[in-house]
Amino acid sequence: MPTQTISIGCDHAGFDYKDVIVELLKEKGIAVINHGTNSAESVDYPDFVHPVAADVEDQTAHLGIILCGSGNGAAMTANKHQQIRAALCWSKELAELARQHNDANILSIPVRFVSEAVALEMVKAFLNTDFEGGRHQRRVNKIACS
């Protein structure tokens, strides 16, 4: 597996941003698993989010990025997977905190509520921020229902 692999998926609202994010990742030498969608034709976001969550859960990908209009449906779908901690973020600071404090492994982007520039800043922050562990690890250990 390359140094880092990111799995990405979106619905019809997110495909424009997804393409720009994929370009950014490739420029950084990051391997991308692109689950689509690749057009503005209406689709059901779970069909593109579940594969991303599965990639992260089975460690085919290190992290995931999902996009939909509000980011909510995508995050809710991904979070049905036991080992997933998808964070709905709308600022760089929230993306950093999601990684630092919550060990988020999927970033959910609400494309109808953030600019393309903010989305790219969130992606960079998400990828470049490490989990702090410590007191946060105890809390993260309590998230999954088993």
Key descriptive features of the protein:
5 strands, single chain, alpha/beta, globular, Ribose 5-phosphate Isomerase B, Chain: A, five-stranded parallel sheet, 6 helices, 146 residues, 42% helix
Model description:
- It contains six helices and five strands; from the N terminus they run E-H-E-H-E-H-E-H-E-H-H.
- With 146 residues, the chain is of the alpha/beta class.
- The chain has a single domain, classed as 3-Layer(aba) Sandwich (Ribose 5-phosphate Isomerase B, Chain: A), CATH 3.40.1400.
Short recap of the structure:
The chain is an alpha/beta fold. Helix content is 42%, strand content 16%. It has one domain (5-140): Sugar-phosphate isomerase, RpiB/LacA/LacB (Ribose 5-phosphate Isomerase B, Chain: A).
CATH topology: Ribose 5-phosphate Isomerase B, Chain: A
Helix vs. strand class: alpha/beta
Shape: globular
How far is the N terminus from the C terminus? 29 Å
The portion of residues assigned to helices is 40-55%
Spatial order of strands in the largest sheet? 2-1-3-5-4
Rg over CA atoms: 14 Å
What characterizes the major β-sheet? Answer: 5 strands, parallel
Please state the second-level CATH architecture. 3-Layer(aba) Sandwich
- Give me the CATH superfamily: Sugar-phosphate isomerase, RpiB/LacA/LacB
- Proportion of β residues? 15-25%
Number of strands: 5
Q: Which residues sit in consecutive blocks of at least 5 with pLDDT less than 50? A: none
The SSE order reads: EHEHEHEHEHH
Number of domains: 1
Mean pLDDT value: 94
